[in-house]
Amino acid sequence: MDLGHTRVDHFLDTLRRDRVPSLLFSGPEGSGKEYTAIEFARKLCCSEQEPCEPGDSTCESCAQAALLEQPGISLVYPTPTQGSGETEEGDVADIAKILDEKRQDIFSRYQFTKKASIRIARARAVIQRANTKPFGSPYNVFIFVDAHAMREEAQNALLKVVEEPPPHSVLIFVTNNPESILFTIRSRCQQVRFTPLKTAALERVLTGYYGVQDEPARRAATLAQGNVRRARDLVESIDDTDSEAAAAFVSGLAKASESWVIGQAIAVGRGSNRDGVSRYLHELALIFRDIMAGEDSLYINSEKAEMIKAQTSRWDRKKLPAVIDRIARARYEILFRNLNVEAALVALFQDIRRIS
Hints:
Zinc Finger, Delta Prime, domain 3; two-stranded antiparallel ribbon; Rossmann fold
């Protein structure tokens, strides 16, 4: 599965030819860090001279890795504490639950009802195995998912093996909060920074991995802010309601009074949560984008061609980039700056009316 991390993939490919240092994968939630770590581990452990391509199960090692059963790849997740008597095997059952869910959906996130962490008992087990010759694999690869949830004493215990990993062992820390990891660990890792996934990559995941149809995949991907989990969740919640409401607003602007515009903003704000308002604003931007395009063949909302054509003659297309930019700013402020939704929408709708 290609997530479009070209620079990351190139960097990791160069590491295969040399001794692999401890790695720190950092970046926003849903940017494919964990998947990439597993894929890199698969390549390291592949039994072929040239690593199998993603999804290719021709070698036994890669077939096992696809099932998260490769003996050289250990996935470590935060799990609820087992109490004062916990042992090195105390988290095995909980990690098994996570892996069972991951085998169904590699991008899933298992939710425990109690607070979870990676504890010193697991760190000690990793140290012991890291210093043991791999069995059934050329490497022992340890992937610490949500490494920021690792307790301080566990991190300190790992320090020596992080600094000087045995030639046959690789440690990968995956986190969206690298500052929560001890500096002594961070400074001894090669950092690999991830950025939000591009829309095209999200579309490929939705259509190729989840089997979503092209149109809902495109809409979900453009709304997901580069987060694969959000894109997956949005597929089920997106319908035509937002698109129809946005089209009605644009059509109504021709004879709109200021009070009508304010009423529309309040109705949108009260009728949905922040993600719902974000979806509405995305659809609104798409309609203005179609009006600016001016040609049937370029319309995203091809089913609204007559309405879009009618609007083309009443809008100055040179001003539409400013409208689309204004919508994008409002959407960002509502999602990430926690502005009052209704107030932000009133200001936005009034600005659009003034431009129209």
